[in-house]
Amino acid sequence: MAKIIGVANQKGGVGKTTTAINLAASFAVLEYRTLLVDADPQANSTTGVGFDLQNITQSLYDCMANQTPAQNVILKSDIPNLDLIPRI
Ligand SMILES: Nc1ncnc2c1ncn2[C@@H]1O[C@H](COP(=O)(O)OP(=O)(O)OP(=O)(O)O)[C@@H](O)[C@H]1O
Ligand SMILES: [Mg+2]
């Protein structure tokens, strides 16, 4: 069964993005199929797993604002088992 882990903190600069990226990569290396969802407009998780924002046309924003299905915006990262819903 799928599990969802949220990384959130009201304070800035406390390691939320670093934690999310490394937790996701660690699960992927352990061969769990992992989907990292970047919900932060800074898009640091998206760039952090290696994507160039210039090359991304659809993101979590489209899922929330335009009812685009999530599967349409999922990107495969270079790490096996690690996919991303980007934010731009
Ligand atoms: N466990 C850690 N030990 C030392 N430094 C860390 C650790 N985790 C993150 N950092 C550093 O702290 C800084 C802030 O981390 P990060 O960008 O992950 O925070 P954030 O909470 O996502 O920030 P923001 O609120 O801007 O989104 C970065 O320079 C990062 O390299
Ligand atoms: Mg962050």
Would you mind describing this structure in some detail?
With 88 residues, this protein is α+β, with helices and mostly antiparallel strands. The protein has a domain at 35-88. It has helices at residues 16-29, 44-48, 60-66, and strands spanning 34-37, 75-76, 82-85. Strands 1-3-2 form a 3-stranded mixed sheet. The relative contact order is 0.22. Adenosine-5'-triphosphate is lined by residues 12-18, 40, 42, 44.
Summarize the main sheet. Answer: 3 strands, mixed
Strand order of the largest sheet: 1-3-2
| Overall residue-averaged pLDDT value | 97
Tell me the series of helices and strands, N- to C-terminal.
Answer: HEHHEE
Tell me what portion of residues adopts beta-strand conformation: 5-15%
User: How many H/I helices?
Assistant: 3
Q: Helix/strand-derived class? A: alpha+beta
The residue fraction in helices comes out at 25-40%
Ligand inventory reads: adenosine-5'-triphosphate, magnesium ion
Global morphology: globular
Query: Radius of gyration from the CA trace?
Result: 13 Å
Distance between the termini: 29 Å
Unreliable segments (pLDDT under 50, ≥5 consecutive)? none
Give the number of DSSP strands. 3
